[in-house]
Design brief:
This protein is α/β, with parallel strands linked by helices. It folds into two domains: 4-126, Sandwich (Immunoglobulin-like); 138-167 and 261-429, P-loop containing nucleotide triphosphate hydrolases (Rossmann fold, 3-Layer(aba) Sandwich). The chain is 39% helix and 22% strand. It has helices at 73-78, 150-159, 175-187, 189-192, 221-254, 272-279, 292-306, 319-340, 349-354, 356-367, 373-385, 388-394, 407-410, 413-429, and strands at 4-11, 19-26, 32-33, 37-46, 51-58, 61-66, 89-95, 102-111, 116-126, 138-144, 163-164, 261-267, 284-289, 344-348. A hairpin with a 2-residue loop joins strand 5 (51-58) and strand 6 (61-66). The model has no long low-confidence stretch (mean pLDDT 90).
Length: 434
């Protein structure tokens, strides 16, 4: 069975005032590959502004960006009047291991005036990555945005005898994300092709940052399969082993005899969560949401308390722009929840504060771990008293209860209206009143 099958290739038919022309030569519908990558080639020719790069994206996330790296004499013959016609071709091998098994890759041309123009979309499907690794622990992913009560939730989870989390209020453990990021880097063709052809021009040459060895794409088929398929499975198995080894050490320290899950935060809009589902058949995912208006207030208050500008606020010029910036994360969580239901469990911060026993029992039932009312009450009590000093440093309200609905007192009428307009539909879908 092929690893990858291309199901459709769509070249944008819309005319562009900035481009003389463009085309995707490869891949073609029906093309197959026995590695976790897709070879893409084509050409694109700008009019007054030359094209300086081609970017490959999936679901809005950047996969790879390359310069025009292939000379095209055939394009020169057709467009001899354009002085940069020869340097109009591109060729790339795009890593698809981090994409969904049914994937779409958008191909976008960048002009030197910073304008970008979509030129096509490549659709396909791939096999899942089977590493052969037999984990004894499964990921419990808390997928959320920032300032949603996720650290407190991890502390509550860590009190449960069958769940491991590592010192939530002291550190921000991302052991799973760390090793899956390493897998992503090593499984990218621009990295693993370095073993065959590299200038070793800098300290990070093995990541392929400085040189993409195009001539290494046409080597022995058996070596190609091994390096782009079999070897990736071995690397993935190693990464899984390192994740489990860390949490085995933590379990020993915490004296947990038969843990089932290791719990960590996972950021929204990342490939890591989908790959976790693929590598671990018993993965669970909690989508944690909080009224985005209160979340916005908490960010502003935390930044003021610490004297910093963080959580993405540093990327925007005003509080109004920051509200709009937060919308994409809120939309992603909503779309993820809808797409993954009933695989995932939705938890609202407000329910955890106001109806903690019921919220914990529902969550533990989803996880299929011990979930009686007595245990839920014990977990809530221990979670509220443990690491009290660290909790207070982390908080921006006098108590969790007073953090609910704080936007009504802390935001100006103008910001309240903007938040309601920006988040209104999403809040309604998550069950909040607007």
């Amino acid at each position: 069975m092929p690893i990858v099958e291309i199901t459709d290739v769509k070249v944008n038919s819309a005319k562009s005032d900035d481009l003389v022309g463009y085309y995707l030569d490869l891949p073609r519908p029906g093309n197959e590959s026995d590695i976790y990558a897709v070879d893409v080639s084509g050409w694109v020719l700008g009019k007054s502004s030359p094209v300086v790069g081609i970017e490959f994206r999936s679901e809005g996330l950047k996969l790879l960006r390359i310069p025009l790296n292939t000379k095209r004499q055939d394009i020169v013959k057709h467009f001899s009047q354009v002085h940069h016609a020869e340097a109009s071709g591109f060729k790339a091998r795009v890593n698809i291991l981090t994409l969904e098994q049914e994937f779409a890759i958008d191909v976008v041309a960048h002009l030197d005036n910073t304008k970008e123009i979509p030129i096509g979309t490549i659709c396909g499907r791939r096999q899942s990555l089977n590493t052969g690794y037999q984990p004894t622990l499964s990921p419990l992913m808390v997928t959320t945005l920032r300032r949603t009560g996720s650290t407190w939730l991890l502390q509550l989870l860590n009190v449960h005898p069958q769940i491991i989390a590592y010192r939530p209020f002291e550190y921000e453990p991302r052991v799973g994300s760390y090793w899956i990021e390493i897998l992503k880097a090593i499984s990218d063709p621009s990295s693993y092709l370095q073993v065959l052809s590299s200038y070793q021009s800098d300290a990070n040459w093995w990541l392929g940052n400085s040189y993409f060895p195009l001539e290494a794409m046409a080597f022995d088929p058996s070596i190609q399969r091994w390096i782009g398929n079999n070897n990736i499975g071995v690397v993935a198995s190693f990464c899984q082993g390192r994740i489990e080894a860390f949490y085995e050490q933590v379990a020993t320290i915490q004296k947990k005899i038969r843990p089932v899950y290791f719990a960590e935060k996972f950021s929204a809009r990342t490939f890591i969560t989908s790959l976790m589902w693929e590598l671990y058949p018993n993965t669970k995912e909690i989508i944690l949401v909080r009224d985005f208006r209160d979340m916005f207030c908490s960010v502003l208050s935390y930044n003021k308390k610490r004297g910093v500008t963080s959580f993405g606020r540093e990327l925007t010029s005003s509080d109004e722009d920051y509200v709009r910036y937060l919308k994409s994360g809120a939309q992603y969580l909503r779309d993820l929840w809808k797409r993954q239901t009933p695989k995932v469990h939705l938890l609202r911060y407000e329910d955890l504060v106001m109806q903690p026993v019921e919220a914990l029992k529902a969550m533990f039932e989803y996880l299929q771990v011990d979930c009686d009312e007595g245990l839920a009450r014990q977990i809530m009590m221990e979670g509220e008293t443990k690491n009290r000093d660290q909790q207070q440093l982390h908080q921006t309200a006098s108590s969790p209860l007073t953090s609910i609905g704080r936007w009504r007192e802390e935001l100006s009428k103008q910001l309240q209206d903007l938040c309601n307009e920006t988040f209104g539909d999403i809040l309604n879908e998550f069950g909040y009143n607007v």
